């Protein structure tokens, strides 16, 4: 036996019992075995090491699900990721810590359309890193804009919008300054030269998302052929569905998607951004592509009043947040666990489907489902204990409890 194998074998094995585990798309009455931050195959453990668990934990009938992954979150709890401070990391850490109680074990800090100087100051300060007791893991940055449509800019400031000039990809590089920690870029596919940009980003392993756009269906399909795999907050900031040209929304049922390719789409399931009927239509049309995102802004977790989103002032009125003095929606204040519960209620879907929309599907769009988003053997032990109503009881990252509800005792 190699030394590293031996040292792993010496580490304690945890057995979570009396629980329902989400595995292979269904809740199964099984135990979950964990060692060294990974999910173990108990049969292999028994045959290879003839070893029982060192610690047994009674989960009191809880559901165990993979940790939630939020691929679009602009900030929260008073922090705005699109503000260029000297300590961006501190703000991201604060949000990462606070979202543990909402079941988020990893996330993509999202920057809205900003001046070039903001990207150049903020992006070098954000590092991809594992989660732990300090907070949820950072999977990479989601850059939403500035290469988006003026007509569908939503809460993005018009004076910061950009188009692709002759050296399209160089233009993008010059704007952002650095792509090292970037994992998603949202752009409008109808822009001239967007195809070459999509190809270049995809080549670098960056997920291209279509959004804030007036693209018709054939422009959207062409973007997918060049490598785009995601749609940013479906229905919001795009042309409304029209039966003769359904626009980006038509990708959900398009027959022009290359074989073996899947299109995913984000939805803000907060009861405000998308009518429950629209949520049901999307889910029934393409259930395997649905990804729940919070699109949360600074005001998440704060009292109503005035807050910021990048360059804009936002007014929060109850659960609605608008650009100050307008009725333009500007991101959400809903937490991920709330979105999961609302999605389940609005669509009548199964518990499994609701949980996978916040875990498996985001992992798939980021191509990290071999280590996150499932409870398969040998994946990272990032998981949640939930009650039957999908309220988070405890959050685990790499097999370690990083948050628990005060009333929950194991």
UniProtKB/TrEMBL annotation:
<dbReference type="GO" id="GO:0006046">
    <property type="term" value="P:N-acetylglucosamine catabolic process"/>
</dbReference>
<dbReference type="GO" id="GO:0019262">
    <property type="term" value="P:N-acetylneuraminate catabolic process"/>
</dbReference>
<feature type="binding site">
    <location>
        <position position="212"/>
    </location>
    <ligand>
        <name>Zn(2+)</name>
    </ligand>
</feature>
<keyword id="KW-0119">Carbohydrate metabolism</keyword>
<feature type="binding site">
    <location>
        <position position="155"/>
    </location>
    <ligand>
        <name>substrate</name>
    </ligand>
</feature>
<dbReference type="InterPro" id="IPR003764">
    <property type="entry name" value="GlcNAc_6-P_deAcase"/>
</dbReference>
<dbReference type="InterPro" id="IPR011059">
    <property type="entry name" value="Metal-dep_hydrolase_composite"/>
</dbReference>
<dbReference type="GO" id="GO:0008448">
    <property type="term" value="F:N-acetylglucosamine-6-phosphate deacetylase activity"/>
</dbReference>
<feature type="domain" description="Amidohydrolase-related">
    <location>
        <begin position="63"/>
        <end position="400"/>
    </location>
</feature>
<keyword id="KW-0378">Hydrolase</keyword>
<feature type="binding site">
    <location>
        <begin position="329"/>
        <end position="331"/>
    </location>
    <ligand>
        <name>substrate</name>
    </ligand>
</feature>
<comment type="similarity">
    <text>Belongs to the metallo-dependent hydrolases superfamily. NagA family.</text>
</comment>
<dbReference type="InterPro" id="IPR032466">
    <property type="entry name" value="Metal_Hydrolase"/>
</dbReference>
<dbReference type="GO" id="GO:0046872">
    <property type="term" value="F:metal ion binding"/>
</dbReference>
<feature type="binding site">
    <location>
        <position position="244"/>
    </location>
    <ligand>
        <name>substrate</name>
    </ligand>
</feature>
<dbReference type="Pfam" id="PF01979">
    <property type="entry name" value="Amidohydro_1"/>
</dbReference>
<feature type="binding site">
    <location>
        <position position="144"/>
    </location>
    <ligand>
        <name>Zn(2+)</name>
    </ligand>
</feature>
<comment type="pathway">
    <text>Amino-sugar metabolism; N-acetylneuraminate degradation.</text>
</comment>
<protein>
    <recommendedName>
        <fullName>N-acetylglucosamine-6-phosphate deacetylase</fullName>
        <ecNumber>3.5.1.25</ecNumber>
    </recommendedName>
</protein>
<keyword id="KW-0479">Metal-binding</keyword>
<feature type="active site" description="Proton donor/acceptor">
    <location>
        <position position="295"/>
    </location>
</feature>
<dbReference type="GO" id="GO:0106279">
    <property type="term" value="P:negative regulation of UDP-N-acetylglucosamine biosynthetic process"/>
</dbReference>
<feature type="binding site">
    <location>
        <position position="273"/>
    </location>
    <ligand>
        <name>substrate</name>
    </ligand>
</feature>
<dbReference type="InterPro" id="IPR006680">
    <property type="entry name" value="Amidohydro-rel"/>
</dbReference>
<feature type="binding site">
    <location>
        <begin position="236"/>
        <end position="237"/>
    </location>
    <ligand>
        <name>substrate</name>
    </ligand>
</feature>
<feature type="binding site">
    <location>
        <position position="233"/>
    </location>
    <ligand>
        <name>Zn(2+)</name>
    </ligand>
</feature>
